[in-house]
Specification:
The structure holds 2 protein chains of 2 kinds. Chain A is an all-alpha fold. Chain A contains 19 helices and no strands. Chain B is an alpha/beta fold. Chain B folds into 2 domains: 37 residues; 262 residues, Rossmann fold. Helices cover 49% and strands 10% of the residues of chain B. Chain B has 17 helices and 9 strands. In chain B, the strands form 3 sheets. In chain B, strands 4-3-5-8-9 form a 5-stranded parallel beta sheet. A two-stranded antiparallel ribbon of chain B has the order 1-2. In chain B, helix 8 packs parallel to helix 10. The radius of gyration of chain B is 21 Å and the shape is globular. The chains are: A mainly alpha, B alpha/beta. At the A-B interface, helix 17 and helix 19 of A face helix 1, helix 2 and helix 10 of B.
Chain lengths: 435, 349
């Protein structure tokens, strides 16, 4: 209601300076709610620790309210709306129902994509008709999303949770594999949800923004952030990085801005120091990448990599993927201490018992069955990656749609049967629901 | 509409063929389908002797006490001890059986077995479960019936429907009568559904301390079961059987579970007793592993339970008069347990 009324007021004022107080009011209301529900306890605990270390009495109780699902997503969505109205990019929405629909549009309410008001609000005013092709397209996108979530992400989650939740019990082999699995788990979980949201909206005649574009094939960290959680990274770029000065400031300021943006991006993911460290690592990667650009180029020329562009490309993809993987240890670990212990354990690999150790992550009491599950998990990742690789050149959906009817049906049946038979149905929540 | 029908029937046909193929590829003791869906159940009834139990249940006459519950219950209620006290009992348990599974089994068997009292075994793990494990066990070892279809649907896990479809596909080729119950050394099936375990599988307790998350559907089905029995005027005793101290300590929110069961029993005016500790039983002598009672433990616990039933007015009144028989002290009973036996056989009680 604050955003709705503040935007209406801003809409009536012609000059930006006079609109500013309404924007400030809206932003303060949004951030205060987000802080109270999500970050208060984190900072309260930190303050308690500081006061205790100074032997000073501190007795501010913890905030015991449940975190509203999807608060980070819709807060950012409404903030972008008021900022856009303030900037004069779109008129204030007068219809309270339409505004409420924009904030709570069910397919993307709990885990995005974070839609811009300029894209989504006008769609609500367009009359929708039943279009068989559009409905089928939406259902196919949803189907692929379900495959990624239920077959790949939830299967990998069993291993990742078993290993990361008991990291002290495992040696380097299972920990490294769990970290690889986690990368694919979090990708398939979140992009699977995005596909389901995009597909559900498409069925109803709405177009949502694509949130992922094969991020693990990125050749640099900056490219990774243009392909991973696209709506969040573009939000931070448009509403934080550019207002802070973007690339038009001194190098030092630019690097500081990058670090600020990514630390806040980490904090957006959760009220835990691990997320802040994860964000800081992303910022450091980007700063380091910018600082060493010329040296790296020279080194690549000396190594002769520039003569083999394809090999060079592959190496860049591998290096970028592993840099992301390293940071994900902090993203998944329950605490900073745990993340550091896990990284320390990476070198502790027992080669003679490696296969048994790895399989024990799935079935500690039956390595044979664990191995079978491991094969299934790796197979699911390979299928998903093969599809992603194919999509590098053209959409697999178009490829299938051009084939004879029996091939099309067989492909869709295969995905449904894979979901029904290979899926993990142990009620694993979407990872990004916690944000 | 025609297209939807064509799509659905086409999908069903392809799905059944896929299931038929996957369930016929055998890797050691299990089919490929079982390995994929984590269906651990064995076609020969498994260590819980489910096949023998449910064959027997089809023909078992009226009983005084009917037990339902998980493998903990199967191995805890010693039918011989009950018959020594003049009580005819039957145990309708299965592996990992939770209230959801028990409800459908009761719906199917309660009129046939016509019990005066139902002892409903529940525990932390089964209250957390979705009922899939027990369904897998029953699906492979019970005669095909409406109960299985209802249960598969109620479990709300597509793997249950897949397992049911696999059973239906192969039913004409592999009817239940062709299966033979496999046997396991040291684990005997006793007529009436009891599993007498004279083994020791205790190595090191490995379960980590954790919080049990009650599945609200299990409480819902427990409530439905109590209602179903009440409608038939059958008395119920809701209980938790003895647990090892190691297992019990591994549940961080044990009190919360007890409170949930206690509140439900009060709402349904049902007796509830938590036997999980202080029964004079110990992990070393009375359990075959960290979860199940052995023969000695079951015998002692059953005496204790009989005593409890006969000293609880609302339960004892529905049962025939107790016939006290002098029991010879078994070789494995230790001095702690003797105190318990003496208490039970105290004529003043």
């Amino acid at each position: 209601m604050v955003d709705y009324l503040a935007a209406l007021r801003m809409g009536k004022l012609e000059h930006q300076p006079s609109r500013r107080k309404w924007l400030v009011l809206s932003l303060c209301a949004n951030l205060a709610l987000l802080f109270a529900f999500k970050y208060f306890n984190l900072f309260n605990e930190a303050a308690r620790a500081v006061f205790q270390s100074m032997n000073t009495f501190y007795d501010v109780p913890a905030f015991g309210m449940l975190l509203p699902v999807g608060i980070s997503f819709y807060t950012f969505q409404t903030m972008s709306y008021t900022i856009d109205v303030y900037r004069g990019k779109l008129p204030a929405e007068r219809h309270l129902g339409m505004f409420a629909l924009y904030v709570s549009f069910f397919p993307q309410l709990v885990a995005g994509p974070i839609e811009r008001s300029t894209d989504l609000l006008p769609q609500f005013y367009k009359v929708k008709f039943y279009d068989r092709e559009r409905v089928l397209d939406g259902l196919k996108i949803m189907l692929w999303g379900f495959f990624k979530k239920i077959v790949v992400a939830d299967r990998l989650a069993v291993y990742v949770n078993a290993v990361y939740n008991n990291s002290g019990d495992f040696t380097g082999g299972p920990l490294i594999l769990a970290t690889y699995f986690f990368a694919f788990q979090v990708y398939c979980d979140f992009s699977g949800y995005s596909d389901i949201a995009i597909g559900a909206a498409r069925v109803m005649g709405y177009q949502l923004t694509n949130n992922f574009n094969r991020p693990f094939l990125s050749t640099s960290i900056s490219e990774f952030w243009k392909r991973w959680h696209i709506t969040l990274s573009s939000w931070f770029k448009d509403y934080l990085y550019i207002p802070l000065g973007g690339n038009r400031v001194s190098q030092l300021r630019k690097y500081a801005n990058l670090c600020i943006v990514f630390i806040l991006c980490g904090l957006w993911h959760g009220a835990n120091w691990t997320f802040m460290i994860w964000g800081a690592i992303q910022g450091i990667y980007l700063v380091f990448s910018s600082l060493t650009k010329q040296i790296r180029e020279k080194l690549h020329r000396l190594m002769g990599l520039t003569k083999h562009p394809r090999l060079h490309q592959y190496l860049k993809v591998i290096v970028t993927f592993h840099l992301v993987l390293f940071s994900l240890v902090f993203f998944r670990a329950s605490s900073l201490g745990s993340a550091i212990n896990i990284l320390g354990q990476f070198t502790n690999i027992s080669w003679p018992t490696l296969v048994g150790d790895i399989a024990a992550g799935f079935y500690p009491k039956s390595p044979g069955r664990g191995l079978f599950d491991l094969v299934l998990a790796v197979g699911a990742v390979l299928v998903m990656e093969a599809v992603q690789l194919y999509q590098r050149n053209r959409g697999i959906q178009h490829y299938i749609d051009e084939k004879p009817r029996w091939v099309r049906w067989a492909a869709h049946y295969a995905i449904i049967i894979a979901i029904v038979v290979l899926g993990n149905f142990n009620h694993t929540e979407f990872f990004y629901f916690q944000f | 509409m025609k297209r939807i029908f064509k799509f659905s029937s086409g999908f069903l046909a392809v799905h059944l063929v896929t299931i038929a193929i996957l369930s016929n590829i055998q890797i050691r003791d299990y089919s490929l389908l079982q390995l994929i869906t984590h269906d651990n159940s064995m076609s020969g009834g498994g260590g819980g002797y489910t096949q023998l139990r449910f064959r027997e249940a089809e023909h078992y006459g009226p009983v005084d006490i009917l037990f339902v519950g998980s493998s903990r219950g199967i191995m805890a209620f010693d039918v011989d001890e009950f018959s020594r006290n003049g009580l005819r009992t039957f145990n309708l348990g299965s592996t990992g059986q939770c209230p959801l599974n028990s409800y459908f089994l009761l719906e199917n068997f309660v009129d046939r077995l016509n019990p005066r009292l139902v002892v409903f075994e529940s525990n932390c793990l089964t209250l957390e479960s979705d009922g899939l494990e027990s369904f897998f066990d029953l699906n492979r070892n019970m005669n095909m019936s409406e109960v299985l279809v209802k249960m598969a649907w109620a479990v709300e896990n597509p793997h249950a429907l897949t397992a049911l479809a696999s059973r239906l596909v192969w039913l004409p080729v592999q009817p239940m009568e062709k299966n033979k119950q496999c046997t396991f050394p040291g684990i005997k099936y006793i007529e009436g559904g009891f599993i007498k375990a004279e083994i020791n599988n205790k190595k090191e307790f490995e379960d980590k301390a954790r919080i049990i998350k009650i599945n609200p559907r299990q409480l819902e089905y427990l409530d439905k079961s109590l209602k179903l029995l009440k409608e038939r005027n059958i008395s119920v005793l809701l209980t938790i059987v003895p647990e090892t101290i190691e297992q019990k300590n591994s549940f961080s929110n044990y009190e919360e579970i007890i409170n949930a069961l206690d509140s439900l029993s009060k709402v349904r005016t049902t007796s509830f007793i938590d036997f999980s500790s202080n029964q004079g039983l110990n992990s070393r002598n009375h359990f075959c592993d960290f979860h199940h009672l052995n023969a000695a433990g079951a015998e002692l616990f059953s005496r204790h339970l009989i005593n409890y039933i006969y000293t609880t007015e609302e339960l004892s009144t529905v049962l025939p008069e107790r016939k006290l028989l002098l029991v010879q002290k078994p070789a494995y009973v230790n001095s702690d347990s003797l105190i318990l036996i003496r208490t039970i056989h105290d004529p003043a009680m």
